Amino acid sequence: MQVFLSKHLILTSLLLLFVLLGCGTDDGDNVDTKMPVQTGSSNTGVITGTVKDFNTDLPISDAVVKFLDKEVKTDTEGKFTLSEIPYIENQKLIVEVKFYETYSKAITLNQKQLTLNITLTPLTGTVSGTVKDAQTKNPIPGSTVSLFGKEVNTEADGGFTFFDIPYAAELEIAVLDPDYQTYTHKFVLDKDRHVLPISLTPLHDPTDELNAFLENLSDLLESLDFENIPKIQSLFSESYVASDDPVTTFGVASGVIPPNYESVEPTFINVFESYSQLQFVFKDREMTITHARKAAIELLLEVDSVNAEDDGMRHLEAKCVFEFRREESEWKIVYWELLNLDIRL
Fold it and tell me: How many Å from the N-terminal Cα to the C-terminal Cα in the chain?
């Protein structure tokens, strides 16, 4: 009886232990399968991007990128990174840099990384000015002005204008003119309108050139050499015309002043045939130099001649105005006017 109870007690104890162990195993499986996932910092991300010039597609360095309370600058490749940005909706990202319009756009961050390609529009202005002769201070028409890959020619008043030139820390303007020294100038464009006064220095002194011109004309006329007539005609512009006032008209009728370019050769053939001696003297010269391509001279023309038929002497004095224009590299007479005429036989 005592032995039976011991066995029964042992079996009961083993059964109880088995049940307890079985229940413990089930509880452990439930914990492992139902353990919640720790999210931690999963609601922050990174904003990266590149900032470029809208026109050239070149990267822009040192642009300031602002978002929330963060601020960074772009590197030499125009790239930027904003780290640890909380997920957020419709917040403005701003990009600022000198010489460009400010960029502003609302963005939403709801992912680990957001990449932006940003283009900035350059601010633009107008560059204008007047090109003048450094000596006479008069405007120069027809000069070629270059800026930012663009070219314009100066107007009659020497003026020029460039539109839509991007703001820049350094721009260079150049002026080319065949009769003047090349001009270059560097400047900063940081406003809507920039005005540049430009002075050009002539390559040669027009006063010296015109004095030499008159001496050459005098020598050719005094030579009475018919072979020199083409050279005399070459000193007149094809657009040459004499004044139509009464005094000049009398000189034309007298056969000593050509009325136009076509008459230059026959006029001086007649002069060479009419006189055996001829002396031309240009005195009391008063020059008005407009610029290196335009001038006028008021002077006293004295002509002493000997008639080829009767050896008669004649002295002529005429107050004249000559107008000159440089054509290519040579001065030409474009206008001749007699202000008064005195003939003594």
Answer: 186
pTM: 0.74
User: Between these two residues, 165 and 310, which has the higher pLDDT value?
Assistant: 165
Which residue carries 């529009």 as its tokens?
121
The residue written with tokens 């470029």 in the block is 52
Cα–Cα distance list, 272 to 152, 168, 185, 213, 316 (Å): 48, 66, 54, 20, 16
SS3 246: helix
At residue 40, does pLDDT exceed 80? no
Distance, in Å, from the CA atom of 51 to the CA atom of 245, rounded to the nearest integer, reads: 71
H-assigned helices in the chain? 2-34, 206-223, 229-234, 246-253, 264-274
Q: What is the mean pLDDT of residues 308-317?
A: 87
- Full strand arrangement of the beta sheet holding 159-166: 159-166, 124-133, 193-200
CA atoms of 166 and 125, how far apart (whole Å): 6
More confident residue, 314 or 337: 337
What's the rounded Cα separation, in Å, for the pair 205 and 295?
A: 12
Hey, what domains does the chain have and what are their CATH numbers? 44-120 (2.60.40.1120), 124-200 (2.60.40.1120), 206-344 (3.10.450.50)
- CB distance 261 to 240 below 8 Å: yes
Query: Tokens standing for 76?
Result: 């030499």
